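Re: that chain you flagged

S.,

Sorry for the slow reply, it's been a week of failed gels. I finally had a moment to sit down with the sequence you sent. For the record, here it is as I used it:
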Amino acid sequence: MARLRLDEARARLRSASPGVRAAADGLARIALTTAEELGMAAVARDCRELLRVPPTGP
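Prediction finished late last night. Pasting the structure tokens below so you have them in one place:
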């Protein structure tokens, strides 16, 4: 689900509709949380890159 949410967030960012793009941030944040909980380092990194959020933890 983390990968799917990240992919959906990326797709939404390519939309011309501000309403569609607005949901991208929330999807990426949910994907990041899930990826971190499951130890999916590459997906978490991609989510952070999309969100431009610095890595958390050690």
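What I noticed first: The two ends are 25 Å apart (CA to CA).

Talk soon,
D.
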